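Ligand-bound model needed. thymidine-5'-diphosphate.
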Amino acid sequence: MNIIVTGGAGFIGGNFCHYMTKKYPEDTILCIDKLTYAGNLETLAPIMDKPNFKFFQADIADREAIYKIFQEEKPDIVVNFAAESHVDRSITDPEVFLRTNIIGTSVMLDACREYGITRYHQVSTDEVYGDLPLDRPDLFFTEDTPIHTSSPYSASKASADLLVQAYARTYKLPCTISRCSNNYGPYHFPEKLIPLIISNVLNDKKVPVYGKGENVRDWLYVEDHCIAIDLIIRKGTVGEVYNIGGHNEKTNLEVVKTVLDKLGKSEELISYVSDRPGHDRRYAIDPAKIHKELGWLPETTFETGIQKTVDWYLDNRTWWENIISGEYKNYYEKMYGNRG
Ligand code: NAD
Ligand code: TYD
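Prediction:
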């Protein structure tokens, strides 16, 4: 089978390309990535020369480029990870989120209609459900929770989900959608919370915690997300949405303190900074459907996953130092220079 993976030079798409090329040597993984600030070919270096892997630099919103790839490669399955993914950037500059996350998704869907596929899978997020109150630990997002977005990022991802559902119904395109909670693990760009903590601490910099650090996220080790998507594209029911998460809720402060502890550093490195506008309070997934229908459960506990992640960043300093010495540094100054 030929499987297109968009956004494969990013965090989760990159991990998915590693996972799939190793698990299915008989399939060909066709990675499409624009290589924005978040795309990094060093993430793909270990698999770039594998016979079952091909890389195409292209923008998913560029119809001509995408159609050409479909025409030449005749994909069977498309997994769309490509997105602008950082909430803080979406607050500063929403427009590119609309172009990539919505228009890009529509181009991918049109290409699937035009050339025919057996499955289109949209990688979405639990953020489309909005947030839950901190004082109601009994509440969880299910697939039936109404869409109710907070940030330009989540609004763009929700719009993409609606388009996918519209194409599934109107054109009978065989689609599935997964909505996952916060991922962590290797190759995570150091603008997101966990890699930011690790890289800052290793550079003796303060760790910025928004507000009081009370917001809650449901953390999932990235490989568990890859396993879930692989199951959905092979065994999931066309037309369905699957929530992916692991009942692994932590406040941001708990996460920061755990990482500081693993690195043997003092909590004095914590710097409380002004809160993110519209900051979602709590995300929490109910993964009962994917467990019941596809037998999926997360395999990596937070304790194991966070240790593996910290070890990976210690062993792969060049990977993240190369990022920080580039464009990311300007971004860091812009976001945090006058915060605090
Ligand atoms: P990321 O920012 O690390 O990677 C995104 C990748 O997409 C990059 O390689 C980038 O170059 C590429 N890209 C961006 N615009 C593109 C375009 N126009 N055309 C082609 N490629 C483009 O993101 P991530 O954290 O790996 O997230 C991947 C997907 O998973 C996204 O759709 C995101 O919404 C979703 N998701 C992420 C999380 C999380 O915790 N990171 C949780 C749930 C869902
Ligand atoms: P992030 O990794 O940006 O993911 P998301 O916003 O998609 O959940 O942020 C995770 C949580 O950490 C979120 O509540 C915001 C918070 N946060 C900080 O407190 N400090 C930071 O420097 C960053 C990047 C995030």
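Residues 114 and 200 are 47 Å apart (CA to CA).
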